[in-house]
Amino acid sequence: MALNSVNTNNGAMVALQSLNRTNSALEATQKRISTGFRVADAKDDGAAFAVAQTVRSQVAGLSAANEQLGGVKGILDTALSSLGKVSDTMTELRTTLVRLADDTLNTEQRAQYEAQYTDLRTKVENFIADATYNGRSLLSTATASGGGDITTVRNENGTTFTLTAVDGASTLVIQDVSSIASAGDAQSALAAGGDWETINTAISDALNTFGSNSKYIDSQISYNNEKVDALNGGLGALVDADLAKESAVLQSLQIRQQLGTQALSIANQAPQSLMSLFR
C-alpha cells in the first residue's frame, strides 16, 4: 500500500471512523440526558425495554384497580353511614317501645307515642333508601334500582371479590305501628327474640360485615400503592439514566469530538505536503 498517495488517505479514514464513533456515542448520551432514560425504546436495549413495558402495564393495572376500589369504598362508607343512623334511631325506637309497653297510658298518650314510633320508623326507611353512591347500594337487593351484590377487582390481574348486599327494607326495618296495637305487643317486641331485638341484631351484623369489608378495602388499596412504589423503584433501576454519570460522559465526548474534528482536519491536509515534491 502506498504511504504517500492523494487517492487514499489512511490517516483521514482512521480519523473519520473515530469521529463517527464519538458522534454516535454523543448522540446516545444526549438521548439519555434529554429523555432521562437509559433505555428509552427497544433500540437501546430490547430485553430491558420489554421487561419495562411489562412492569409499566402492571403499574397501570394496579392504578386502575385502586380507582375501582375507591368507588366501592364510597359505596361501603355510604352504607356504613346509613347503618349508623339506623342504629341510633333504633335506640330511640326502643325508648318509644318501652313507653308503649306501659299499660297505664291513656288513649291520647298512646296515640302520641305511636305517632312518634311511626316517625322514627319512617326515618329508618329513609336512611336505608338513601344509602346510594353513584347509583349503587349495599342496603338493597333490588338489582333493577342499583342494589344487589357488588363484585369488583382488587389487583392488576383482575382478581375479584364480592360484597354481599343486605335487603334492608325487609330485614333492617322494624314492624309498623299496626303490630303495636297494645302494651302487650310492645312488650313482645322488646322481649328476647322479639322484633326489636331481631332487627337490631341484623343491623349489628351488617355493621360488622361492612366494617370488615371497608377495612379490607383500605388494606388492599394501601398494599396496591406499596406495590406500585416497589414496581416503580425496580423500573427506575432498570431503565433510568444516571444523569450525574451521563453529564461526565457528555463532557468527555464533547472534548473527544473536538479533538477528532481537529485530527480529521490535520489528516485531510496531509496530501498537501506531497505538492512540495513537484516544485
From TrEMBL:
<keyword id="KW-0966">Cell projection</keyword>
<dbReference type="InterPro" id="IPR046358">
    <property type="entry name" value="Flagellin_C"/>
</dbReference>
<dbReference type="InterPro" id="IPR001492">
    <property type="entry name" value="Flagellin"/>
</dbReference>
<dbReference type="Pfam" id="PF00669">
    <property type="entry name" value="Flagellin_N"/>
</dbReference>
<feature type="domain" description="Flagellin N-terminal">
    <location>
        <begin position="6"/>
        <end position="141"/>
    </location>
</feature>
<comment type="similarity">
    <text>Belongs to the bacterial flagellin family.</text>
</comment>
<keyword id="KW-0975">Bacterial flagellum</keyword>
<dbReference type="Pfam" id="PF00700">
    <property type="entry name" value="Flagellin_C"/>
</dbReference>
<comment type="function">
    <text>Flagellin is the subunit protein which polymerizes to form the filaments of bacterial flagella.</text>
</comment>
<protein>
    <recommendedName>
        <fullName>Flagellin</fullName>
    </recommendedName>
</protein>
<feature type="domain" description="Flagellin C-terminal">
    <location>
        <begin position="198"/>
        <end position="278"/>
    </location>
</feature>
<keyword id="KW-0969">Cilium</keyword>
<keyword id="KW-0282">Flagellum</keyword>
<keyword id="KW-0964">Secreted</keyword>
<dbReference type="InterPro" id="IPR001029">
    <property type="entry name" value="Flagellin_N"/>
</dbReference>
